[in-house]
Amino acid sequence: MTDDLPANGTAAGASSGAYRVLARKYRPKIFADLVGQDALVRTLTNAIASGRIAQGYMLTGVRGVGKTTTARLIARALNCIGPDGNGGPTASPCGVCVHCIDIAEDRHLDVLELDAASRSKVEEMRELLDGVRYRPVSARYKVYIVDEVHMLSAHAFNALLKTLEEPPDHVKFIFATTEIRKVPVTILSRCQRFDLRRIDMSHLTGLFRDISKKEGIEVDDHALALIARAADGSARDGLSILDQAISLASGEGARHVGEQAVRDMLGLADRARVFDLFEAVMSGAVKTALDLLADQYAAGAAPVVVIQDLLELTHWLTRLRVAPDGADDPALAETERTRGVVMAERLTLPTLTRAWQMLLKGLTETRSAPMPLQAAEMVLVRLAYAADLPSPADAIKSLGSGNAVSSPSRAAPPPAPPSGPRAMAVGSSSGASSSSAARAAPVSAAASAPATRPEPVAASTLPAPASFVEVVALFDQKREAKLAALLKRQVRLVRFSAGMIEFNPGKGAPSDLAGQVGKMLTQWTGQRWVVSVVNAAGAPTLHDQDLDQAKADPVVKSILEAFPGATVDAIRRADPET
Fold first, then answer.
1. For the segment 504-529, what is each residue's pLDDT rounded down to a tens digit?
2. Where is 235: in which H helix or E strand?
3. Global pTM?
4. Cα separation of 4 and 236, whole Å?
5. How far apart are CA 304 and CA 268, in angstroms?
6. Do the strands 171-177 and 56-60 form a parallel or antiparallel pair, or are they unpaired?
């Protein structure tokens, strides 16, 4: 049978020479040995002591928490006769009477264990129920233990209904299932239901430590924590992992299980390196993050497990953010606790929740991808590029103020302004034919270099512009195209100095242009900028200056002379590659 919950009791049964796995060797003998199921133990103990024994029990919970073991304990408790043969039902079976021994060895004639997955048909259920009316052969009660009861067919459930509602006094039914929602409510209403809880890590760690001592094996506390985390609330799963770890240590001629050995066995990444990877991703260091992932993959960590570790770390940091006392968990290593507190203070809740959503989606992609490593790399790249995006609240606030939403700059500085026009096209003043003027700018080193993603730069560290031309270039760099165009075409500069701009606006300039420019420059450079409107004449706009410079070009001048009345209509930069 499955779902046997081991505990910190003594070995069950005498040694027969054949090895017995820990999950069977340390199976509970009494209710007190059940781990992490205090409510169930208290209820069953009081019910048996007071004689309030139900005709049917429904035990539900995840795998490995003790459903089948509890069913066997109930059968032993109801049929135990004590060492002297005169005892009655008890919550502490003696373990030495004939009934206790036969039930423990799964050979009692009056305790029938059935697997509903292999006997799900109605004919088999009717055959089983035909024996209900006969009294037990030797025991006090005839007990039917049906495992995975949700696998029964609808007709089999219907055949069971009447007998389960009014069984003979000598018959008890005990059902176990992991899918309680698949059991008809008509069956549930006829049973006492017990939900066996997942076993928390502290109970599992204590259980594994006790069993390790009895086996003569020394296991590091951090290794026990890793096993308990991998067990995911299941004692049987955890004991299977512990059994494997002990075999690994014994194979090396030692009686000690270390943390690194458990990590290698489970294919887990080093916890410190998980912190390094998450920190690199959240700071936008893509190359560093990909190198760390490659190192962990080469060390044996599966890409899916790495993404799961990042998800777990994101969840833990979020909890630290809202409940800082979580850092006091004694199971945490000192370095893990220290780094976690620092990262939780630095990262905002919107950033953490966005990382959680992206990692959760990336986990599904990595599991289903034909090449999990490449899928995990793409998850990290997406997360790194999104790490500095504004939160929804910041985006809405920025839109409400009329400013375009922009994330902190990751781009390289804009190329230097072109030195002069190279080719211009002119059109007739009558409008019959017009074309655009073009200017070829020299290709700067930044433009010709391969496109790489620099490290993020905080807005407060951007250098202050030294001229009005650099102000316009900064707005182009920050992708504020509308404001950059207004500065080029509608601003006649009167005075410029560090932290101060005075200009005479054109007719097309909005009334709040000065306020917007001052606010953004202050935000980007970290120093206060005063931008004001004055009535002085001011210099020509940058656009007009470009037109004048274009007209002075010898080629353009010859064209204008060849076509009297033609004017320069517009200027555009030619493709550097043409």
1. 888 888 888 888 888 888 888 888 88
2. helix 235-251
3. 0.55
4. 7
5. 10
6. parallel
